[in-house]
Amino acid sequence: MTPSHRLHGARAYGRAADAFEAVAWKPPTAARFRTEIANDAPVVPEPTVGDMVRAIPGWAVIVGGGVVAALMGALLGGALQI
What we know:
The protein is mainly alpha-helical. It is built from three helices and no strands. The chain has helices at 3-13, 49-55, 58-81.
């Protein structure tokens, strides 16, 4: 180990650490870290299925039913043609 590394070890750990010693690192103190989560978003309740159904406008139900009925008729007509 070079003298500069020994000096660095003495400053960081309170004593000079030799290259062959097992203890050359110590964990940081707990006061260094913040306890909150970095990407902590505000808690927003998820909408329920009933809320999502109530959000669908009435005209969308009628138009969607008409589209499904037209597709089923086209498929049935195509199947009966064969």
